[in-house]
Structure formats: structure tokens, C-alpha cells
Amino acid sequence: MTGNSGKKLEGALFDECAGWIWEQLQEEGVYIAGEVVDLILATERELGVHSREPGEIARVLEEEFRMRGIAANPFAIDAPLIQRVLEWEDDFLGFAGMKRAES
Asked: How far is residue 70's CA from residue 2's CA, in Å, rounded to a whole number?
């Protein structure tokens, strides 16, 4: 995961990030489908909000998912869950030598 400065979080690196986040959540006892992590990461980039602060991104995505009618069970895709994913994303980006604004 090193030497990625200037690269975007896409392709194989996106998949590695999403998989790693999913594993971290599992270890915390948060059992969600890996596709939920993919959805969060992809939607923040689709909306162009990935360079904002995680708390703000989480609120924007929670509202976007609500408007799209996207829901999950047993865990809701709410701001606290989204923020947790984003915090793990920040950790991954740090390990990869990337900044959120550049990803």
C-alpha cells in the first residue's frame, strides 16, 4: 500500500480499500455486506464530496441514500455507520500515502 502518492482510489486499489475496511468492520462486530462499503466509497466520489470532512460526508451520504430509497438490514446505512467507514478509509489512505482530497 505504499508509494501511491498522486494516485486515485480506483480499480484494484479501490477494491483493496473496500475489502480492508470491510474486514476492520467485521472485527468490530459490524456485519454488513461488502457492497455497502463499496456503495459508500463510490457514492462519495460520484457526488464529489470525498475531499470534505468525514462528518459532513456522512450526513450528505445518509441523505442521498434516503432519497434514493437505499436501506440495509440489520444495520441502517446512517451517518454513524458511514462515518465509521470513512474513518477506516482515512486509515487506509494514510497507509497508502494518500490524502483524502487527492483520492
From this structure: 34
Please report, in tens digits, the pLDDT of each residue of the chain (103 residues total).
444 445 688 899 999 999 999 999 999 999 899 999 999 999 999 999 999 999 999 999 999 999 999 988 777 899 999 999 999 999 999 999 998 877 7
- Pairwise CA distance, residues 68 & 4, whole Å: 33
**Centroid of chain to Cα 27:** 16
d(CA 85, CA 93): 12
Nearest-angstrom CA–CA distance, 37 and 27: 15
Cell output for 69: 430509497
> What are the distances in angstroms from CA 15 to CA 41, 68, 94?
10, 24, 16
- Single out the residue of 58, 10, 48, 14 nearest to residue 34, CA to CA: 14
